[in-house]
Amino acid sequence: MAAEGSRSVFRLNAVDRRGRKIDPSVLAAAEGIYSRALEHGLKLLGDPAVVTTALEEIAARTGTEKWKKKRIGVLGLRSRMSKSQAREKLDAEIAKQAGRGAAPNKDSRVTFGWFVRKRWYPLKEADWKSETARDKKCIIQKDLLDPFESIPLEEFDKFQLQVHLNNLAKMCSKDRVLQIKAYMQAIFAEAVDQEFLAKDPARNVKAPENLPDTDKTTLSWEQLRTALSKLSLKGRLILELDMTNALRPEELFGLRWGYWNCPS
């Protein structure tokens, strides 16, 4: 920051955090915002890099080559606004400046099931191993697709998703609830990115408080022997093989007598 007379002027780096050169007009707009805030004794939420990035995003979405200085107003008092609320208001302002209306560019009447299978899974499958994909899809099918399969994307709201997560917390472990929350938010964030939705209904969904901890009970040797004695011969063999060899399900149930190589 440099001072010119009695007026303080911000000078920001000419490159962003990724090393890319920032458009001079965008840089000047960000410097102007911070300078005016300082004159009025205000401390803006975030830092100069955040404001610069936001202005760049507006310029990119509108396709304008030159940024025109414009008063964007006050998001709110820092003492009365959380970071998430500030981000939500900033997103709304960016959407307004970028000319995005309330209506999405694509059909928001498509169902949740269609979007997950046709537009979200294909993006994730490239990063998932086959075993991982099968397990993740099984969880998503049971906890998200089964209850929401035929509901259009445009009909979802924060209340509906929060209630669903609260109900899961009554039946599932802490890890399972947090996993479903992450999948839910990732799916709806992608729906916004692909312009099927104008607003993300899952963005501010919170994990329920007082989630039950994962049961980490350890059996004593005597308790383990008692449990094994109650199983059938087949069940006991399966459990003992899995306990002693740490096999994946497909490895355990894929075993055949032909694989046994016993020394003569």
Key attributes of the depicted protein:
disordered N terminus; about 55% helix; two-stranded antiparallel ribbon; elongated; 3 domains; 10 helices; mainly alpha; DNA polymerase, domain 1; about 260 residues
Plain-language structure description:
The chain has helices at residues 24-39, 48-62, 83-97, 112-125, 130-148, 158-171, 174-193, 221-229, 233-245, 249-252; strands at 2-4, 7-9. The protein is mainly alpha-helical. It has three domains: 2-97, no CATH class; 112-193, DNA polymerase, domain 1 (Orthogonal Bundle), CATH 1.10.150.130; 221-253, no CATH class. It has a two-stranded antiparallel sheet. Strand 1 (2-4) and strand 2 (7-9) form a beta hairpin. Helix 2 (48-62) packs parallel to helix 3 (83-97), helix 4 (112-125) packs antiparallel against helix 5 (130-148) and helix 6 (158-171) runs antiparallel to helix 7. The longest helix has 20 residues, at 174-193. It starts with a strand and ends in a 12-residue tail after the last helix. The model is unreliable at 1-10 and 65-69 (pLDDT under 50).
